[in-house]
Design a protein that fits this description.
By secondary structure, this protein is mainly beta. The chain has one helix and 13 strands. The protein has a five-stranded antiparallel β-sheet, with no helix packed on it. The protein has a two-stranded antiparallel sheet with strand order 1-13. It is globular, with a radius of gyration of 15 Å. It starts with a helix and ends with a strand.
C-alpha cells in the first residue's frame, strides 16, 4: 500500500503526452464550445475564451518542450503562452523564449488543470472565476479543484 501511494503522488503532475507537431484545441470543461485563443496573433495579446473553431490557428496549440505554442505566428516569430507567476495576472502570448514564465504542465491524472511548471499551486482560470463565457480573460488563480479550472486537451 505504501509503495502504491508513492507512485500515485509522483505521477500527479505528468506532462501531457502530446506529439510536438500536432496542434490541438484546449476546451473548457465547463462549456465545451469555448476554447483558449487570441483575437490576433500578436506579441503580448491576451488569451481569452472564444467559440471553438478547429480551423482557426489563433486557437490551436501544441505542447512542445514544456511550452504551449500557438499555431498562429506574429510574422516569423512563434508565440507561447506566457504567465507572470502572480494571481489574477492576465495570461498572454509572447514571443517564445527561454524563460520559466512560459513553462507549463497539464495534470492529466487528476483535475485536468494547466499549471505553471514553477508553481503548481496556481491554475489557469478565468479572471472573474465561475462559469465560463466567451471573451473571458484567462489568468492564474490558486488551484481549488473546481471544474472552472478544468480543461480538455482536445484530440
Amino acid at each position: 500500500p505504501f509503495r502504491y501511494a508513492n507512485i500515485l503522488l509522483a505521477s500527479k503532475f505528468e506532462t501531457v503526452d502530446a506529439t510536438p507537431t500536432k496542434y490541438k484545441l484546449i476546451k473548457s470543461q465547463d462549456d465545451d464550445d469555448l476554447c483558449w485563443g487570441v483575437d490576433k496573433a500578436e506579441n503580448r495579446e491576451k488569451v481569452i475564451l472564444l467559440e471553438c473553431d478547429d480551423k482557426e490557428d489563433e486557437q490551436r496549440w501544441k505542447f512542445d518542450d514544456d511550452k504551449l505554442v500557438l499555431k498562429a505566428k506574429d510574422g516569423d516569430e512563434k508565440l507561447c503562452l506566457h504567465a507572470f507567476h502572480e494571481e489574477d495576472r492576465v495570461l498572454r502570448v509572447k514571443i517564445c523564449m527561454d524563460t520559466d514564465r512560459q513553462e507549463f504542465r497539464f495534470d492529466k491524472n487528476g483535475d485536468d488543470e494547466w499549471t505553471p511548471k514553477k508553481d503548481s499551486d496556481l491554475c489557469v482560470d478565468t479572471k472573474d472565476g465561475g462559469s465560463h463565457e466567451e471573451d473571458d480573460k484567462l489568468v492564474l488563480k490558486e488551484c481549488n479543484g473546481e471544474e472552472y479550472q478544468a480543461w480538455e486537451w482536445d484530440d
